[in-house]
Amino acid sequence: MGISNHELHNEFPQFKELIDELKQNDLTFREHFQQYAELDQEIEGLERRDAPIGDDKLHRMKQQRLQLKDDLYKTLVNKSNGAG
Question: Is 23 in contact with 33 (CB distance < 8 Å)?
């Protein structure tokens, strides 16, 4: 299985500047960004080491990462459209 890079700047390159701005100026975004980055690194590390972890736990971790990414994306779209 290939290991993908899910770093937020790579996932949403069109929002690169906005991501950096919100990390500086929006506490909620910064907290979610940090949670996302830490979870992504943990998942990537487990996949690289082929660490013994149950499929269910890895699946839940990936679901959590996806939910965080969805929340971050919604914030990015709203902020880019001048809302919020």
Answer: yes
